[in-house]
Amino acid sequence: MKIDNQTIDRIAHLARLEVSDADKPALLKDMNNILSFMEKLNELDTTGVEPLIYLTDEINVYREDAVKQEITVPEALSNAPEQDGKYFRVAKVIEKS
Amino acid sequence: MKISDRATDKYELVVGLEVHAQLATNSKIFSSDSASFGAGPNQNTSPVSLGLPGSLPKINRKVVEYAVKLGLATNCRINLENRFDRKNYFYADLPKGYQITQDQLPICKDGHITIRTKSGERTVRLNRIHMEEDAGKSMHDKHNSSSLIDLNRAGVPLVEIVSEPDLRSAEEAAAYLTEIRKIVRYLGICDGNMEEGSLRCDANISVRLKGAESFGNRCEVKNLNSIRNLQRAISYEYERQVKLIEAGETISQNTLNFDAASGVTSVLRSKEMAYDYRYFPEPDLQPLHLSKEWVEELLKSLPELPEQRANRYVTNYALSAYDAGLLTSEKAIADFFEKVIQHTSNFKAAANWVVGPIQSYLNEQGSDISALQVSAQSVARIISLIDEGKINFSAASQQLFPALVQNPERDITDLIAEMNLSIDTNSDELVKFIDEAISQYPDKVAEFNKGKKGVLGLFMGEVMRLSKGKIDPKTANKLVVEKLESLK
User: How many domains are there within chain A?
Assistant: First the structure.
């Protein structure tokens, strides 16, 4: 797979990042390098090897259905760049049609 | 927007529904903060529901239990190997930037439920049921320059029930949603309240030429918040799509919004703007391996479901499928009916009382059966008094029952005496009423004797009116006919 400018635009959109045209050549080079590096792994025969998802073999780690309120409203809001003591405030996000 | 019947005859409607049901657990799906509705803004949050870095989700056992129960109740195959996946998208009320859901291995697969409409009984297949978390709530109109976010709902457990595209009319879609609502309420896993959003529905709607094998392009209509709006949106889309195809255009595969005020759909997202969710397995939640024994235990614990109950009423109590359907529409109503028939063996009358006078009284009061003060035993007593010819149905339902609701502790016989409702056994008085009624309509008497038996109703109505409902209709009917025939 080869990364082109279109791929950069798409990834930037998915990550909600603004990428200027001036930054693109450097990004293009880095990303293509990363991919060729990863492609090295394709040389390995992984037939019959299950993809690794979990780092431990634990299963069924359940929590019982009991309410425990561990933080207050001011604590919940404390990291927000904008809030009014009750709600988080964000830029208006009505979806455009 | 009216299209010709010829056009609608040519096309078939195809609908599949995605129903989200909020599970009635105490705490959230992956954290211990409360899942209840109606708290002050951001009171029910935790590091997990706020999506704080480093916080780790832990699955609520009850959520899995409820999802399995629903799967069993809808004839699904339960997937014993479960895992969760991340669905990635940006939205301000989704603090982590992804929703934890089940993509590859949903907990329930390949089920079906039965629906009943005017055109009969049909089986609707379920593709899957999976567990996931709800998002928070955005408010766009409370502040002029910013949107306000409340994360109380973030992490509230949901099951998404996905049907196959088996529904062929708005009526069938409504019957399906009604049935799902009944089932979750009988199971006690969701309150089914559509206004509060505990039960929400998206509809995938397309049309195709009758007899066609392949489906047409579909549109997904989001956030239908009542059964009526679901029907309106489907009818609107059907006409819109048929009209476009008839005009030689193609249907664009869009996500639509239904505006309840205008009854019209509009484009929310076009196919080109569709999200790329980049699902991948959620490594923060260890997989779940359900044991067969646990699933069997849950199967044994299932309550009798609405369909089974309705069938039992038809078989054991000889009720009509229609009455059985009405009685089982709410579990509390069916439970009350069963209490009544512990005290009377007139099952038909018991059913009539529950879906008739009792239900209309409750509807008028805007109240439900759990608030009814009149005992099932009193209702059974009224039924036997009618059967014994001591009081007639209209006096019982229109006068005695409302009086009893006001004074549930009063003795029924005392009330009847006090209100002077008992049927007059004094036949002299009855004969007087009959004579009076008949003398008013000599021409109708002639009609009756010429064979027009329908006019009997007129005389009976008059006799009932004159007696103020205090006579036994059976006796009166017999006497009126005798009297009329004697005038031949």
Answer: 1
Q: Could you read off the pLDDT of B369-379 as tens digits, one per residue?
A: 888 888 898 89
Round to the nearest angstrom and report the end-to-end CA distance of chain B.
Answer: 60
For an interface test with A, the pick among B26, B31, B32 (most A C-beta atoms closer than 10 Å) comes out as B32
Measure the CA–CA gap between B171 and B151, rounded to whole angstroms.
36
CATH of the domain at A16: 1.10.20
B11 to chain A, closest Cα gap in Å: 29
**Best of B286, B290, B293, B294 to disrupt the A interface by mutation (most A CBs within 10 Å)?**
B286
Angle, vertex CA B33, rays to CA B30 and CA B34, nearest 5:
110
Is position A26 within any domain? Answer: yes
Give pLDDT < 50 ranges for chain A.
Answer: 96-97
- Would you call B267 an interface residue with chain A, using a CB distance cutoff of 8 Å? yes
Residue with tokens 């950069």: A8
The number of residues making up chain A comes to: 97
Q: What is the overall mean pLDDT for chain B?
A: 90
The reply to whether B51 touches chain A by the CB within 8 Å rule is: no
This prediction has a pTM of: 0.83
DSSP-assigned states of every residue in B204-235: EEEEEETT-SSPPP-EEEEEE-SHHHHHHHHH
Give CA–CA dist A82/A91, Å, rounded. 10
Domains annotated for chain B, with CATH where assigned, are 5-295 (no CATH), 304-418 (no CATH), 427-486 (1.10.10.410)
Identify the domain containing residue A34 by its residue range: 5-42
DSSP element (H, E) containing B335? helix B331-340
B83–A95 CB contact, under 8 Å: no
Which ranges of chain A would DSSP assign to H, the alpha helix?
Answer: 5-14, 24-39, 73-77
